[in-house]
Amino acid sequence: MAVITIDIFSDVICPWCFIGYLDLKKAISLYQKTYPGGSKDDFQLSWKPYFLDQEEPKERELINDRMHRRMDAKMVHGAQTRLQRIGAGLGVDFKFGGYIGSSRLAHRLLHIVEAEMGGVMQSKVSEMLFRYQLEREEDVSQLETLVKAGVEVGLEEGVVRGWLGGEGEDGRWSGLGEVIEEEAKGAREGEVKGVPHYVIGGKHHIDGAVDIAEFFEKVVEVREGRGGEGTISTGFGC
User: Fold this and answer.
1) Which pLDDT tens digit goes with each residue over 116-148?
2) Structurally, what CATH architecture does the domain formed by 3-233 represent?
3) Which residues on neighbouring strands pair with residue 62, listed in sequence order?
4) What percentage of the chain has pLDDT greater than the value 70?
5) Domain boundaries, the chain
6) Are 125 and 113 in contact (CB under 8 A)?
7) What pLDDT is stored for residue 230 in this prediction?
8) How many CB atoms neighbour CB 70 within 10 A?
9) At 141, is the secondary structure helix, strand, or coil?
């Protein structure tokens, strides 16, 4: 059995991060079904923070307003149409009418979930946050949205509120906000110039949401010890 690690640099407000993750899941499933001995290999995913808004927004705003503030109307229409077309193929119904705000609290939740419950639950929470923000038009900058998302994947409401409302019973989450900010800053100053960004096996980088075949090929390279270090920059991203 081989252990294959995948670090996922992502922001929960990025639609391409959601698309990329769903394609990555399909690639892993394909690998486990078709690669010799692949069903016994262990994939360990870890979500890492990245902030599309380097400076934390003071207020939330409508997604449509945010997009029109950054692009002209024709570009917004094209971007939304492309996302809806690609999303439909993955069973995702992208919507753009909800509010969007700071993702800091959501990243805090993801960090704590991994530390307390492991990477499998962290991935479940991350996917649910994408669905709340990008399909259900519920703003993941809001505490109540994060609590609902956590409960939906099996976490206890009181536990989630405790994690996000303070430092934890023994104070171990004191200063976590600063830790996450530094981690995100370090990623941006390193090789992560946008999201999604994947590091497979500790050294093989994929920049952007690539298709299932590219994910599959890179995983096989890592499994077989082939391919050199470097970054593939072929996918869409935020």
Assistant:
1) 999 999 999 999 999 999 999 999 999 999 999
2) 3-Layer(aba) Sandwich (3.40)
3) 99
4) 94
5) 3-233
6) yes
7) 63
8) 10
9) coil
Backbone angles phi, psi at 26, to 5 degrees: -65, -40
CA–centroid distance for 209 within its chain: 11
Residue 229: pLDDT band (50, 70, 90) is low
C-alpha distances (whole Å) from 124 to each of 87, 128, 135 are 18, 6, 16
Report pLDDT digits (tens) over 21-73.
999 999 999 999 999 999 999 999 999 999 999 999 999 999 999 999 999 99
What does the alpha-carbon distance between residue 180 and residue 207 come to, in Å, rounded to a whole number?
Answer: 21
Neighbour-count burial for 151-175, b at 16+ CB within 10 Å, e otherwise: eeeebeeebbeebbeeeeeeeebee
Residue 9 carries which side chain, given as an amino acid letter? F
pLDDT band at 12 (very low <50, low <70, confident <90, very high): very high
Helix (H, G, I), strand (E, B) or coil at 73: helix
Half-sphere exposure of 170 (CA within 13 A, CB side): 1
**Based on the number of CB atoms within 10 Å of its own CB, is 24 exposed (0-12), middle (13-18) or buried (19 or more)?**
buried
Structure tokens at 228: 């050199």
Q: Measured between alpha carbons, how far is 64 from 96 in angstroms, rounded to an integer?
A: 6
Displacement of CA 186 from its chain's centroid (Å): 17
CA distance 10 to 150: 18
pLDDT for 173 beyond 90: no
168 has a pLDDT exceeding 90: no
Report how far residue 59's alpha carbon sits from residue 46's, in angstroms, rounded to the nearest whole number. Answer: 29
